[in-house]
Amino acid sequence: MNDTISNTSPPASSPLPVSAAGKKGKGGLYTAHNKIYIRATAGVFTKWRWTLVFLTQIVFYGLPWLTWNDRQAVLLHLVERKFYIFGWVFWPQDVFFLAILLIISAYSLFFFTAIAGRLWCGYACPQTVYTEIFLWIEQKIEGDHLKRAKLDASPMDGRKFSIKAAKYGAWGALALWTGFTFVAYFSPLGELLGSVSTLSFGSWETFWILFYGTFTFVFAGFMREQVCKFMCPYARFQSVMFDPDTLVVTYDEARGEPRGVHRKGDAAASKGDCIDCGICVQVCPTGIDIRNGLQYECIGCAACADACDQIMDKVGAPHGLVRYSTESALKQGWGSSEIFHHILRLRTLIYGAVLLFVGIAFIWGLATRIPLRVDVIRDRASLGQEIPGGMIENIYTLRVMNMTEQPRVFTVGVEGLREVQISSERRVEVDAAQTHEVTLRVHVPLDAGKQGANEIFFNVSAEDDPGVKRREKATFFFPR
User: Fold this and answer.
1) Which of 45, 203, 336, 469 is the most buried (most CB within 10 A)?
2) Whole-angstrom Cα distance, residue 424 to residue 438?
3) Domain ranges, ordered by start, for the chain
4) pLDDT, tens digit, 9 for 90 and up, residues 376-399
């Protein structure tokens, strides 16, 4: 996807063509922003980054098109208030699973950040992913970083206008398709496709397609590193989760200094391996110099490591001048095995144990989930009335939720008081993934309970699967 670095650049002390010309603000609250023209690179970490780009976008753009049981496989249907995820149907009452997912996400963030810093930011964050895609489109239309800087500096003419129009058109089409796909997770794709030809989207669908598409266009096309540096809260509190044994992108100062261009006749020990080419700065998506140490702007993408390794190949030095390492490893001169052993420290073990426990609880909850919900509501207009035959009658509304995608017939029973019985229909038919309400009349002999509230239980079970059953408590009222 990206061009391999084919030559070295001037020393870092000379002007680098990575930023637009402009004056920085002096003093005051704000500083003028200089546009960063990121230089393309290639290498192991770049390949991993693009692999994650492909995988995440295949999942994002592809899931709405998958079908399951003659419906959309993944649909968070807000109108019906049901979440369809392959073979599962989740209702608002299943908010427990959402809470568990949020806990898993939080501890995953803690766990992986403590181990290897901002891996999420560098490889899978939507801002990084879409910036990579938009930058790739920009490179294909406008050229490499030098050509892009030259084009922006040139006056507007027909050629520049056509190139910019082509780029913005491609960005806009991708952004709108991204917004459309996002909405397809919450509104059935078939209905959205039917609205495309006539542009008859509902008001909320129109709003969210434009809203999500516009933010994608602006964030990935224009703001880019500014989102990571100034808007993302993760950049601000990441240091709390770092320690000297966290893997981060680092510059080996002991090996690289004193930096400078290697000239013929220099003493072998007079210069470090860093030739001060500045390419590590040119490929950085946030425009920082990794040689100044770890900075909060660093997203851990390791583009600088790929670029530096290519330069090391050209000067005949080993890889790893810029690499993933830890602060302790650099100070102590540790190898890979020592780094690995220090990664498995108390902090990461606790995070990992909690994450494992919550993950097992989540899987167990899904595996043992009973696809049936029952709500019992007693008729409050009648606290209980005496009927012929020496019986007391209470009236209940039974709301039965069939959480499977097949129609089912449920049998209702009652217990808790002597000779308690249901005088109305005891079989309830419920369509697939639907709720059905039925009115039940429950009779109890006059002397079967005490005056006031008495506890009874409704038992609801599926006729085709006795394991699908619920037992719900209710109150039977004897008049005083």
Assistant:
1) 45
2) 10
3) 1-369, 372-478
4) 988 877 778 888 888 999 999 999
